[in-house]
What we know:
Blueprint: E1 9-11, E2 14-16
Antiparallel strand pairs: 1-2
Amino acid sequence: MGISTFEGVVENGVIRLPADVTLPEKARVYGVVPGVESAPRARIRTPRLARPEQAADFAKEVIQVAPDARV
């Protein structure tokens, strides 16, 4: 895989490369933005049981209810 480096400018949220740069359609590109701090991403963890043997305590029961035409 070859790597090329180009310098561009962001205008109205769009990266503008120099006019002599042509990229193939659907080319995968990566951006490096020097000197800009980004906020850390929020990380949402999947809940875990402290005691997996208690999983039965959280079992759900699904109840089918006839549709109500008055709603």
